[in-house]
Amino acid sequence: MDQESRLNDALQSLGDTQADVVPEGFMNSVWSRAGEMAEAANARRRLALFAVIFAAGMGGGIGTIQTPPVKAETTSYQLFAGADLSPAVLLHVEP
Questions:
Q1: pLDDT tens-digit map of 14-59
Q2: Biggest CA pair distance of the chain
Q3: What pLDDT, in 10s, does the model give residues 59-90?
Q4: Contacts for 88 with CB less than 8 Å, ≥ 6 apart
Q5: 37-69 b/e with 16+ CB inside 10 Å = b?
Q6: How far, in Å, are 36, 71, 85, 90 from residue 76 at the CA level?
C-alpha cells in the first residue's frame, strides 16, 4: 500500500466515526468547578495573610515584652498652667 491510499483510508475512518456528544450540563459543571477553584485560592490567600499578621503580632509582642518598664512623667503645659479647663468653668455654669 502506498502512502496516499493509507492516508485516504485513515481519513475515511475518521469521517465515519460520530463526534462525541457533550452532555447537557457540561458547561455548568465547568463553571461550577472554576468557581470552587477560585474560592479555594481565596481561602488559601486569606489563611496566608492571617498567618503573616499573626506572626508579626506575636513577634512584636515577644520583642516588646522584654523591654524595661517606662515610667510616666507628668507633663505641664505652660499655656494652660493653673487654668481650670472644666466644661462648667468654660461655659460659665455654676455647679
A1: 766 666 777 788 889 999 999 999 999 999 999 999 999 999 999 8
A2: 120
A3: 888 877 766 666 777 666 566 556 667 777 77
A4: 94, 95
A5: eeeeeeeeeeeeeeeeeeeeeeeeeeeeeeeee
A6: 62, 16, 14, 20
